[in-house]
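To the wet lab folks,

You asked to see what we're planning to order before we commit. Fair enough. Below is the target structure as tokens, and below that is the sequence we designed to fit it. If anything looks off to you, flag it before the synthesis order goes out.
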């Protein structure tokens, strides 16, 4: 008995995995509709690379700009209320919120409601990043290339590249790749 010819494993976990023709066409159409809806409802400028997937109930309301690289996937119930820059090959899980630290409250003569918003709360996410389920990112922060942000983390300061970060507030617990060593 001969063994079957070698076949490369199918990557069933990738957000852009191959699908049968009717499903593939339907999903592409849905992604285009969601992207068109985001463009229509967003006040600022939206620039997207290729193969951007936006799941249902995504709410992107960047006041000035939103720049999304190629091969980026947003999970269900994603919310963004600040300027955003995302690199390539990024996975953003469901229920992730990106908000700005843009409501001043230090003027005793004005209420929080009447104080003007700040414009300096942009969030930058590098390439090859995974942001886990339920993460809250409070700008202005930068998440480095290759960073993994654990589920439920609260990001309030910059995260270094190629680290795994967890907690509230999020902090690096180790390097992403074993040969680099532990983060101190």
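Sequence we intend to order:
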């Amino acid at each position: 008995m001969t063994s079957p010819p070698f076949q490369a494993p199918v990557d069933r976990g990738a957000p852009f995995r191959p699908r049968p023709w009717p499903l593939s066409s339907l999903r592409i159409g849905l992604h285009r509709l969601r992207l068109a809806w985001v463009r229509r409802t967003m006040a600022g400028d939206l620039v997207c690379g290729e193969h951007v997937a936006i799941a249902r109930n995504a709410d992107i309301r960047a006041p000035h700009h939103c720049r999304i690289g190629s091969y980026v996937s947003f999970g269900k119930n994603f919310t963004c209320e600040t300027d955003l820059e995302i690199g390539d090959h990024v996975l953003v899980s469901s229920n992730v919120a990106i908000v700005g630290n843009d409501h001043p409250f230090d003027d005793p003569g004005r209420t929080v409601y009447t104080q003007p918003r700040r414009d300096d709360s942009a969030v930058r996410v590098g390439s090859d990043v995974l942001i886990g389920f339920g993460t809250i990112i409070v700008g202005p922060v930068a998440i480095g290339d290759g960073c993994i942000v654990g589920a439920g983390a609260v990001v309030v300061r910059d995260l270094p590249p190629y680290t795994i970060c967890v907690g509230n507030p999020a902090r690096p617990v180790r390097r992403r790749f074993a040969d680099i060593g532990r983060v101190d």
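Structural context that might help your review: Confidence is low (pLDDT under 50) at residues 1-10. The CA atoms of residues 4 and 69 lie 39 Å apart.

Thanks,
Computational group
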